[in-house]
Amino acid sequence: MEHVFKLSEIVGTSHEGSDAAIKAALKRAQATIRGVKWYEVVSQRGYIEDDGKVQHQVVIKVGFALDD
Amino acid sequence: MEHVFKLSEIVGTSHEGSDAAIKAALKRAQATIRGVKWYEVVSQRGYIEDDGKVQHQVVIKVGFALDD
Amino acid sequence: MEHVFKLSEIVGTSHEGSDAAIKAALKRAQATIRGVKWYEVVSQRGYIEDDGKVQHQVVIKVGFALDD
Amino acid sequence: MEHVFKLSEIVGTSHEGSDAAIKAALKRAQATIRGVKWYEVVSQRGYIEDDGKVQHQVVIKVGFALDD
Amino acid sequence: MEHVFKLSEIVGTSHEGSDAAIKAALKRAQATIRGVKWYEVVSQRGYIEDDGKVQHQVVIKVGFALDD
Amino acid sequence: MEHVFKLSEIVGTSHEGSDAAIKAALKRAQATIRGVKWYEVVSQRGYIEDDGKVQHQVVIKVGFALDD
Amino acid sequence: MEHVFKLSEIVGTSHEGSDAAIKAALKRAQATIRGVKWYEVVSQRGYIEDDGKVQHQVVIKVGFALDD
Amino acid sequence: MEHVFKLSEIVGTSHEGSDAAIKAALKRAQATIRGVKWYEVVSQRGYIEDDGKVQHQVVIKVGFALDD
Amino acid sequence: MEHVFKLSEIVGTSHEGSDAAIKAALKRAQATIRGVKWYEVVSQRGYIEDDGKVQHQVVIKVGFALDD
Amino acid sequence: MEHVFKLSEIVGTSHEGSDAAIKAALKRAQATIRGVKWYEVVSQRGYIEDDGKVQHQVVIKVGFALDD
Amino acid sequence: MEHVFKLSEIVGTSHEGSDAAIKAALKRAQATIRGVKWYEVVSQRGYIEDDGKVQHQVVIKVGFALDD
Amino acid sequence: MEHVFKLSEIVGTSHEGSDAAIKAALKRAQATIRGVKWYEVVSQRGYIEDDGKVQHQVVIKVGFALDD
C-alpha cells in the first residue's frame, strides 16, 4: 500500500533557546495532528522584546501520514 | 506563554504588477485567516495570456498565530 | 477577476520509482482537492526497508485555485 | 503532441521601479519573440548614476514555445 | 586547443512522466543543435489540464560545443 | 588604480509597497554614505500591524566605493 | 542507544533513464555497504555519447548506520 | 514615519553549544548597538582545539533601527 | 608545506536535542578519525518514534587533515 | 531611454587554471557578440583527461546590450 | 573567554584576474581592520570597460575579532 | 555496462592562490585514488595566519570510477 504524507510549516517560539522552540512546535503539532512522523528545520530567527529579552523562533516542517 | 505560528503558502495574481499581486494575496488571507502577522515573498512569475496581457503571480508565505 | 491560489506540500511514495511516487501524490491530491492546477517537485529521497526493498519518496507542492 | 519551450534570460531596466523594469523586458521580448508564454524573476539590482538617479534592473527568464 | 561551450535552457513536456519529458527536450535539441555534449536538470513541474490529465514539464540545460 | 567597494545590508520599509520600501532604503543610504554605486535585493517580507495595515520590508545590499 | 550514520555520495548511470540510474547506484551501494538506510537525490545530469546515445547520471547520497 | 534598519553579521562562540554561542553574540551586540530588534541564524560551524575541546561558532545577522 | 583536508558527512542523533546530536556525531568522529579540525552543520531533522518520543538528527561535515 | 540586456551562458576551458578559462570564454564572447558589458561566474568544474592532465571549466553568464 | 567576530562584505577588483582581486580586497581590509582572521568568497563577476578591458570583481566576507 | 562513480570532498590549500589550492587538492587525490575523472568547486575561503600571510583554501569534490 503506498502512503501519502503531508508537510505543514509551523514556527515554535521560546525564551530559552532553539531546542526549546523546536519542542514547543512539536508539542503543538502532536496535540493537533495524528501520525506526526518527522520534522525538518527550515530556519532560525529571534525577536528582541522591548525589555531586551529574546524570543527564539524556529521554523520547522512536520510530516504526517494522510489517513487512507 | 509561548506562541506557535503556522505558515501558509498562497499565490496572488494581478494584471497591474507584483505589488498589486501581493496585496491581492494578503487581502484574501486576511479575509479567511485570523491573526495574520507577517508575509514573506517566495518567488515571482507571470503568465502571458493569448491576447498578450500579463497576469503577474507572486508566491508568498503568510504567518499567523495558532489559537491557544 | 484576480485569482488566488494555495500551495500544499505533500509526499508521494512508491516502490516502483520517482515518476510513480509523483503520480501517487497527484492522485491523492486530485481526490481530495478541487481545481488542482499544477505541481512542482521539491526534493527526492528514498527509504530502504529491512528486506532491502526501496520506498521512493518525492516531495511535491500542488497548486489549486481558492474558490471565490 | 508534446511541446518544447525555450527559456531566454533578459534584463529590463527602468528609472521608475522594478515593476516598470519587468514590463520593459517583457515588451522587448514580445516584440522580437513569437509565443512568449511566461516569465520568472531571477534577481533584482539597481545602478546609481553619477547624478544620483537610480536605474532599476530586473533579470527575468521568458519562456516561449519552439515552433514545430 | 581550448573549447568554448554554450548552454541553452529548454523545457521538455510529456504526458508519460519526467524521464519522457527529458527525452523529448533532448530529441528536439539534437535535431536543431550540432554537438550536444551534456544536459543538466534544473527543475521539474507539471501542469494539470482541464480533463485532469497531467503534462509533466522538465527544465534542462543542454551544453554544446561552439564551432571554431 | 584598483578600487575596493564595501557592501552594507539595510532594510527599507513602506506602507505603499516594495518599490517604495527600496526607495526609502536608498534615500537613507545616499544621505549617510558617499559614493553609493549599486544595490541588490536580498529578500522581501512584510509585517501586518494590529490595525491590519501592512508594513512592506525589503532587505537590500548597497555597494559604495571606499575612499583611497 | 544513540546511532551515528555516515553519508556517502555516489553517481549512478544508465542509458534507460533517471530512475534506472538511481537503482544502479543503490544496487552498488547495497552490495558493498551494510545497513544502507536511505538515499537523497542531489542532482541529475546526462552525457551525450558520440553516437548520440544518452548516459543519464544521477548523484545521490546514501545513508548507512556506523557499526557500534 | 518609515523606519530603515541595518543588518550586521557577527559570529558568537562558546564551548557549551550552539544556543550558548547565539547568546554570546547577542550579548555583545546589545552591549554595543542600540535598538537591536531581531537576529537570523546564517550558519553553524565549530573548531576543534588541539586538546580536543570544541569551540561552537554560530554566524548570525542582527537587525537594529537606524536613528532618524 | 601545503595541507590537504578531507570532509566526511555524518549524522548524529539524540533524544535530548540538536546540540546533543552534534556532540554524539563529533564524539564518534574523534574516536575513529585522527586530526579532526572542524565541523559544519548541514541540516537538522528529527524522527518521531511510535511512542511519540523524538530522535533529533543533525547532519554535519567534519574536516580532518590527511596525513602526509 | 531604457535599455534591455540579454544574458548568455557559456563555458570556457583551459589547461592552465580557472582565470584562464574565464578569459577564454570572454575572448570568444567578445569576438562574436557586440556590446558585452559584464560577466558573472556560475560554477567551476574540471575534467581529468586520460593522461592525467586537467581541463578546467568555468561556466559564466555574459550580459550584452540588445540593439534598439 | 568567548570571542565574538564580525563579518564585513567587501569587493576587490583587478584587471589581472580573480586571485588578484581577492588579494586587493584583503590588502585593503588588513590595512584598515585589526585582527582579520579569515575570508570567504561570496561571488565573482566582472565589468567590461569601453575599451574591452575586463575589471574582475570578487565579493568576499572578511572575519575579524572584536576587541574585548 | 553501467558505471558507478564516487564523490569525495577534499580541501586544497596554498599560499599562492585559489588555482594553486585546487591543484594541490587534485595532486593529492590523483596520488591516492585511481580513476579520478572530474572535480567540482564547492566553496573558497582563506585563513589569515598570525604573520598576516594568507592560506587560500578551496573545497572541491572529486569524482572517480568505482572498480567493477
Automatic annotation (TrEMBL), chains A, B, C, D, E, F, G, H, I, J, K, L:
SUPFAM superfamilies: Dodecin-like
InterPro entries according to UniProt: Dodecin, Dodecin-like, Dodecin-like_sf, Dodecin_bact
Domain of life, source organism: Bacteria
Gene3D superfamilies linked to this entry: Flavin-binding protein dodecin
Coiled coil residues, start to end: none
NCBIfam families according to UniProt: DodecBact
Protein name per Swiss-Prot or TrEMBL: Dodecin flavoprotein
